[in-house]
TrEMBL record:
SMART domains: HTH_ICLR. It comes from the Bacteria. InterPro entries: GAF-like_dom_sf (IPR029016), HTH_MetabolicPath_Reg (IPR050707), Tscrpt_reg_IclR_C (IPR014757), Tscrpt_reg_IclR_N (IPR005471), WH-like_DNA-bd_sf (IPR036388), WH_DNA-bd_sf (IPR036390). This is IclR family transcriptional regulator. Residues 75-276 form the IclR-ED domain. Residues 8-74 form the HTH iclR-type domain. Keywords: DNA-binding, Transcription, Transcription regulation.
């Protein structure tokens, strides 16, 4: 029992140190020294030093050979990366259902795969007349608000390379298990203000997505369908998914931006569940 208490206390110290190294002060400075870490966790310098040495041996923290500062280690990020998609799916299911209930429209969780958008899960609208589920379907990122939400944190160089390869992909690339829909997929988007026609217009649209916190679509993929999407961030602030709500245009009318704000709020809530802090 006494040994268990000692192990538990040691684990608690380890966690305290990792949490300190995850704070903005440590991240922005590129790491912290032993003295500062000891002060923040309220421990003796010798105890903090032993804890850091143990964590460094396991790869959970790294020590800069020049500054001697400690920062979160590569092994910790690798472990987090392996569990992030599982956490995403687990956290998203209930929120997706709630989003469909609040908007009374069909909600989707989307990720970027192979340069385009894969819908991981859908929650159907409670309305009898609704858009279809898209689970397992891959669509062109430039044609969908989900794609633009997913690309919204890309740098200019990466975006240019991506556009050269995927900027003219067809609307639906892999149909997956998609059920027949009453809404026809358009060969080309309906002409609208701010339509995506080239890399320059895409860059301008991504700027608007970052400013507003959401992207919208007005009959760009399916005839008679509008949609709104918002990016989901993980604990590193990287965009890892997008929440999307699609609806018949005749029902949403001029409330597309209102829908976008609701979806953006839901995406922020899901981001927080994944450890993101604004």
């Amino acid at each position: 029992m006494q040994g268990s208490r000692r192990n538990s206390a040691g684990l608690a110290r380890d966690i305290e140190v990792l949490e300190v190294l995850g704070r903005p002060e440590a991240v922005q400075a590129g790491g912290l020294g032993v003295v500062r870490i000891a002060a923040l966790v309220g421990r003796d310098k010798t105890v903090a030093s032993r804890t850091l040495a143990t964590l460094a041996e396991s790869g959970l923290v790294d020590r800069d050979p020049d500054t001697q500062a400690y920062r979160l280690g590569s092994r910790l990020y690798a472990l987090a990366a392996r569990t992030s998609e599982g956490a995403l799916g687990w956290s998203a299911r209930g929120r997706l259902k709630h989003l469909a209930q609040v908007t009374r429209e069909t909600a989707h969780l989307c990720v970027l795969r192979g340069g385009n958008v894969l819908t991981l899960m859908s929650e159907l609208s409670p309305n009898r007349f609704h858009t279809t589920r898209w689970e397992g379907v891959t669509t062109a990122a430039w044609r969908t608000p989900s794609g633009r939400a997913l690309l919204s944190d890309w740098d200019a160089g990466s975006l240019a390379v991506w556009y050269a390869e995927h900027g003219h992909d067809e609307g639906v690339l892999e149909a997956g298990e998609r059920a027949d829909s009453m809404f026809a997929v358009l060969a080309q988007p309906s002409p609208r203000p701010n339509s995506i026609t080239d890399l320059e217009s895409l860059v301008a649209e991504l700027r608007r997505v970052r400013e507003r916190g959401y992207a919208t679509s007005d009959e760009e993929l399916e005839r008679g369908v509008v949609a709104a999407s918002a990016p989901v961030h993980d604990f590193t602030s990287r965009v890892v998914a997008a929440l999307n709500v699609s609806a018949p245009k005749e029902r949403i009318g001029g409330q597309l931006d209102k829908l976008g704000r609701i979806v953006s709020g839901a995406a922020r809530d899901l981001s927080a569940a994944l450890g993101h802090t604004a």
